[in-house]
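Submission sheet (multi-component)
Chains listed below:
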Amino acid sequence: MCGIVGYIGTKRAYPILIKGLQRLEYRGYDSAGVAMISETGSLNVYKAKGKVSDLEAFCQEKDITGCAGIAHTRWATHGEPNSTNAHPHYSASGRLALIHNGIIENYLTLKEKLIERGIQFRSVTDSEVLVQLVEYIMQNNGIELLEAVQVALHQVIGAYAIAILDREHPDTIICARQSSPLVVGLGDDGAFYLASDASPIAEYTDKVVYLNDGDIAVLQLGKELKVVNMDNETQHPKVKQIDVTLGQLEKGGYPYFMLKEIFEQPGCLRDCMRGRINVDADRITLSAVIDYREKLVSARRIIIVACGTSWHAGLIGKQLFESLCRIPVEVEYASEFRYRDPVIYPDDVVVAISQSGETADTLAAIELARKAGAFVFGVCNAIGASIPRQTSTGVYIHVGPEIGVASTKAFTGQVTVLSMLALCIANERRTIPGEQYKEMVKELTQIPDKMEQALKTNEQIERLAPIFTYAKNCLYLGRGYNFPVALEGALKLKEISYIHAEGYPAAEMKHGPIALIDSEMPVFVIATRDRLYEKVISNIQEVRARGGRVTALVTEGDTQIQKFADHIITLPDTLECFQPLIASIPLQLLAYHIAVCKGKDVDRPRNLAKSVTVE
Ligand code: F6R
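Outcome: structure written.
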C-alpha cells in the first residue's frame, strides 16, 4: 500500500524521489505526489492521479530544484484517487507539507475541532488532518515542529508513518512511525534517505535504521540522526546493514518481475535452506527451534494466522505439522481470528506467516495471541518488518524482495520454512523415525533441482495459455497437500488476469460446483501420484462426463491420466508433502501467461497492494 520516500542532502532531491517512488510502485497505488523546498526557499507540492510517470509528466515545466523533499504513492482509503486527495498535503498556511501511510481512526473528531477553529480543508483524507493539526498546535502554542508533532501524535489514534517538510527549516525532515513501516538510510555525506522499505534506499547506502513504533526521527542534514518518542525521551534504534542488492530490485532481462521471481525460485529455496540444512543433507538446524525448543516441542496446539497466499502456505503447514509432529493445527484467516474472541491457551504456539511482515490483520492477530499469553512464531520475508519484531521468535524465508504483487517465491519460501520447521519439531518429538527424517531432509534439498525441471514446462504453458484467455470462470481441483495448491493456483489467476477462478477439494466438487461444469469452463486438476491418485482420477472422470475440459498436472511416467485429460503437464516426482513446491510452478506460469495474453499489467494488478497495511 502507500509508499513513502524522502531525501535530504546535497544532491538534487527530485530524481532520487522519483526513482524511489518507482521502486515502491510494486506496493500498489493510484496517485502520486512530491514536495520539495526549492533553491529559492519555496515549498512546492506537485501531485497527479495515476502512475509515477503521470506525476513526472506533470512536473515537466515545474520548479523541481532543491535538495530536500518527500514523496508519496497513495492507495486510496479515505476519498477517491485524485490529485487533491493525493499526498503531500499542505498545511493551511502552506508552511508545512506532510505525507502519511496508514489510517487515522479518530480523524473525524479531530477534523471537526479544527474546522470549529476556522481551519479549512482541501481534501477529504484523514491524512490532511495531521498536517492541519500540527500547524495549528505550532501556531497556537508558539512552538517548533518537533514539539508540535509530539503534542499532535498524543491526540491521534491509528496507524501512521509520516514525514513532514517545513519551509522554515529546509535542512530538516521530521518523520514518525506507529504500526506502519519506515526506514531511514544514513548517507556517508551526511545525507538522509527515508522510505517505507529498504528498496528505494539500497542504491545509495547500506546503513539503515528501522524505526520502531512510537519513534519520531529528526533528519537534519550533516547532523547525527536524532530519535525521540512522544515524550521527548531519546531512543536508540540500531543501525543495520541493508539486506537488499540492486540486482534484486531490477527485472534482470525479464519482461515482468513476476516471471523473474517465478524463475528465481530454485535459487531462492537454496538460499532459504543454506546454513540450515548441513552439507550431508541429513540434518536441519533452526536457531529458533534450538532457542525455544521446549515451547515448540511441547506445544498443545499450533494456530496458524495469515492472509491470502500466506494463508494457503499455512494450510500446507497444517498438514505437515499434523502428520509429522502429531500436533493439532488450526489455520485461521488473521482478519477473522482477530475479531472472533478465539480460545487461545498459554501453551499454544501461534505461527504468523507473512511475506511483507506488515499485514495489518496479521499484526492484530499476533497482538491478540500475545495478550492471551501464547508463544508467537513468525515466518517472514521482509527483514526488520513489524511482524518479526512483534513475534517471540521466528524464521526468515530469505527469498529476497518480492516485487511482483502476486506472491510466488515467497509462497514456496514459506512452504519450505514450514517444512523445515515441521521436520525439526518432529525429530525433537520423535514422532517420525530417524531414517524417515533423514530421507525427508535429503529430498527437501533436491527440491530446487526438481523445480528447475518443473520450470521447463514454461514453453508448453505459454503455448497453452491463449486457449484459456476467453474463459469467464475456471476451476482448480486438488486433494490432500494439493488442495491448497489448487486454492493458490486459482488466486493467482484471479489476481492478475481478472478471470474468476475457484479452488476446490476435488471430492467436494460433487457437492455443488459440479453444476457449473460445461465445455466453457476450464478445469485444472493437480493429479500427481500420491495416496489419493486413484481417487483424483475418478474426480477427473466426473468432470469429463459432464463435458468439462481438463488440464491435469501429472507425475512423470504417468500413463493413465492422458486418457481422460485434454492437456497434460508433466512434473518431476517427489514426496507427497513436498509436491506443493513443484506443482505450484506450472500454476504460477499458467496465471502469468494467461494474464500476459490478455494484455494485463502482471506486476501491478488493479486494486491490489503488495503490503496490506490497513484492515
Ligand atoms: C497474493 C498475495 C496476497 C498476500 C496477502 C498477505 O498473491 O500476495 O494474498 O499473500 O496480502 O500478505 P503478507 O504475506 O505480506 O502478509
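Remark: Residues 8 and 68 are 4 Å apart (CA to CA).
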